[in-house]
Amino acid sequence: MANLRVGLIGLGMMGRHHARVVRELDGVDLVAVADSFGDPHGVAGQLDVLSSVQELIAAGIDMAVVAVPTGLHEEVGLALADAGVHTLVEKPIASSAEAGQRLVDAFEAKGLVGAVGHIERFNPALQSLRKRIEAGELGDVYQIATRRQGPFPARIADVGVVKDLGTHDIDLTAWLAQSRFESIFARTTTRSGRPHEDMVAATGQLGNGVITNHLVNWLSPMKERLTIVTGEKGAFVADTITADLTFFENGTVATEWESMAAFRGVSEGNVTRLAIAKPEPLRTEHEAFRDAVLGLRSDVVTMREGLDTLRVAEAVLESATNRQIVKIAAS
Question: Which of 15, 47, 17, 13 is nearest to 29 (CA)?
Fold first, then answer.
């Protein structure tokens, strides 16, 4: 069977990584790249740098990866859907829920694989955590809290921290808990002088009763990517920078040393850093996309799921503006 022909549009910070991984992947060939601003990272190699999605389609591709700015996702995605090209678009799916809905409708109408690049789902620590939650290792899940903080990335210009970074946490939280968001309450602030928010604190509740808490910003001098899932039997802490997963058991041994109890707690349980395989998340994401196109499995983040995530992100912004809890209607 011939390799699938892949086209990449957008050769910026993420595009260069997509190009590298596609070239490393079995069963696919990178045959065309496009970016109207050229190739700043020199990833094209022997390929011509095309200037538009129409030229990319004309190269005869089976699959496409879209890594252009968010505001262009709808235009590029609709052109690819119209041409019958399976597509992986970087997150968020689009700049608005209305645009996202048009993408969902276009790809579903053609029976195409439409995927969104919520890469955190493919982080080894979170993949392992999801399996352990499903296996009952935590018992009932009570809360999922995330912290995603760091300095401002120069690559972002057209959306704020909620749609850029916060969508990671919205998606992974619903995916880990296997339940959609029902309500959200949030506060945002803008401190960097840009038109979009650069810090958010949000508290939500999922349909299954799990409560959530999310701190996301572009204003911290340190970089932090943590997901903490607390439940009946203890807590899992996933660090998605290092892909480490640690389990903190509930306390079973009383702390007799009074001064130690003041900062270690009145009881202690075992703490275990789990040994897990650590494949590159972007490679795992591309393998899932390739296999979905081949009909072998279906664990991509679908465009409909990406749309649900975007709707929650917009509810976060609505809540911050109106200073009220926002109920999130089922799609």
Answer: 47
Q: Which residues of the chain have pLDDT under 50?
A: none
Q: Are residues 225 and 133 in the same domain?
A: yes
Cβ partners under 8 Å of residue 100, min gap 6: 74, 92, 93, 94, 303, 306, 307, 310, 311
**CA pseudo-torsion sign 118, 119, 122, 127:** negative
Residue 253: which domain range?
Answer: 121-279+310-327
pLDDT of residue 264: 65
Give the model's pLDDT for residue 118.
Answer: 98
CATH number at 81 reads 3.40.50.720
Whether 82 is in a domain gets the answer: yes
* Distance set, CA 45 to CA 13, 17, 66, 283 (Å): 16, 14, 19, 20
Structure tokens given for 268? 């202690």
Label residue 283 exposed, middle or buried (CB < 10 Å: 0-12, 13-18, 19+).
middle
Predicted confidence at residue 266, as pLDDT, reads 58
The beta-strand segments (E) located in 35-170 are 49-50, 63-66, 86-90, 114-117, 141-149
Q: Which amino acid is at 322?
A: N
Q: Do 129 and 214 fall into the same domain?
A: yes
Residue 305 domain flag: no
Q: Looking at the structure, tell me whether residues 175 and 109 fall in a common domain.
A: no
| Pair (97, 125) in one structural domain | no
Flag whether 229 is in a domain. yes
- Angle (CA) 20-111-282 rounded to 5° is 20
SS3 of residue 63 by DSSP = strand
Q: What tens digit of pLDDT does each residue of 62-91 get? A: 999 999 999 999 999 999 999 999 999 999
pLDDT of residue 221: 94
Flag whether 113 is in a domain: yes
Count of the separate structural domains present in the chain: 2
Q: How far apart are the first and last CA of the chain?
A: 39
Q: Residues 120, 309: contact at Cβ < 8 Å?
A: no
